[in-house]
Amino acid sequence: FALGFILWGISESFCSGSEESLLFDNLKTKNEEKVFGKVYGKGNFFSSIGVALSCLTGGFLSSLITYKGVLLLSVLFMIVSILLVTKFREVNYFKMKNDDKPDDDHLNPLGTLFEATLVCVRTKQLLMVILMLVLVIGTSGILDEYDPIIVKSYNVNLGIIGIWISIRYVLEAIGAKFAYLFRSMFSRIGIKSDFYTVCLVCLTSGILLLVFGIGSSIVLIPLYGIFYLFMASAGVIQEEYVQQTIDEQGRSTVHSIISLLHNIYGILFVCVVGLSISKVGIHLGITVISIYILILTVFLYSIYRIYTRR
């Protein structure tokens, strides 16, 4: 069981950045990289719907075909996924661009990592986008771990957690699929920058979470769900910005750096929030987190404005 999770972790490391890079480079071969956000959002939509269905039906299937049957069914779907992956077309602009170079320093893992890190640090606007992606949008991906505590605070049956999580994933799926509509809507009112769009979406999300935290009433749960819908949209828009900014400098490696930062941030965040919630309660903790999101969004927006004016 433990070995399975170790292999799962390794597989996630391989997938981190590779999925986005493979999609972007394949679209680029057809000169369709501008629709990356729409396609990526649609992919996230189906992924989230899949998770929602598994959360909703997992308990019923376990009682119907036993837990072992559910595990075997999961293995079957993994085999199907492997067959689908064999049909992927491998496109790597970074490798194609450097194949004709006399040395192979560009293929050295540390060299690629160093170059990707320089891209993230030297491009100040990109750095602000990455920080927004990790510190603000990434917070929603950590906060959802506390769903069982929120459910328990309302003194309802913990068995409802599967339905709760399913609904949240459906809302995230909707947010990802229609992220491009947010871009179009803000573009029509004169906000052309994707980063400014993301800032407005994150501010709206933070306000919704703040109202939910302060009110702490069960009738305000829809605000909590819409918070995830908006954050999912912001994540897709932000991801497209990152992909469009990278100029083949180890596209997947840049994304892996972002994932590494997010994981480190997640560890620190969970330690601090876990200790805090145990002392002040879940709803006050959510209130503080929402204020943190609002302040950090305004701060990163201000720094981004300074860099773009230079």
Describe this structure in words.
This protein has 310 residues and is mainly α. Helix content is 82%, strand content 0%. The chain contains 13 helices and no strands. Helix 6 (124-143) crosses helix 12 (251-280). It is globular, with a radius of gyration of 21 Å.
| Parts with pLDDT < 50 across at least 5 consecutive residues | none
Number of strands: 0
Largest sheet: none
Distance between the termini: 54 Å
In short:
Helix content is 82%, strand content 0%.
Descriptive tags:
310 residues; 13 helices; 82% helix; 0% strand; globular
Write the layout of secondary structure elements.
Layout: H1 2-15, H2 18-29, H3 36-85, H4 93-98, H5 109-122, H6 124-143, H7 147-153, H8 161-177, H9 179-188, H10 194-215, H11 221-245, H12 251-280, H13 282-309
Helix pairs in contact: 2-12, 3-8, 3-11, 5-6, 5-12, 6-11, 6-12, 6-13, 8-11, 9-11, 10-11, 10-13, 12-13
